[in-house]
Amino acid sequence: MKTTKIKKVDRTNWRLCPAGQFWRSAHHQSSYHRKDGTFVREHSVSAGCCDNPSRKDQIYSEELKTIATKYFPKLKGSPAPDDLDFKNIGNLYDELIRGWTQFWNDILGTEGPLDPNLVKALIATESGFNPNPKVGPSKARGLMQVTDETQKILGNKNGELKDHLVHVDQKDMIDPNLNIAAGVRWLFRKKELAAVKLKRAATWDEAVAEYKSYLKDMIKDPKFLPKPMKKLRDNYDRLKKFK
Questions:
Q1: What is the CATH number of the domain that holds 217?
Q2: Packed helices 61-71 and 94-108: angle between N→C axes, nearest 10 degrees
Q3: Residue 9 clears pLDDT 70, i.e. is over it
């Protein structure tokens, strides 16, 4: 299937600060000692752009919330308003799904855009649109079941992400907005990891299989199709056909 090249946009079309800086809301800073031993008294810090020593693009929860409020109500397009039989909750997060999918498509500028319908189908099989499901042994949380380990990786400037870090806390993962922002970013990373395993460019379906930890077994046995993957594909087809 022919893919469409996404035109990479200037990050300032979405972001509050220029490249090399990140946004921090006004907050109270407790007293502390700098590495050189000097003492800094407690003080109030005004909202504004801060320099980014890591030289990686970083975004924090304050800016994620502002972006969603400022831009997402104006956006149009997928996902389809089909609740996938999750009555009263299946369409609650369409605006956030649409917004964060468009955001990361623009920021990361990959070949073949991620479809918001696929993200919605993924959420249906991950959490059933429950923003705060019971936390199991895997320590996965929220709508997209972002694990505690993943949450740490997303914000680690010395970790596996080359750029575009997302700084969110464990408690942020029950916030639908922040969970989807982090989850979609992680799905882009999973597409990269899937490509390494496949030794070729990965499709978004394969990225989802890697996100759900099925890809390795599906590579070993091409006939193997876990029930959650089949359900996800069925939901995705249903959303694409919705009229």
A1: 1.10.530
A2: 110
A3: no
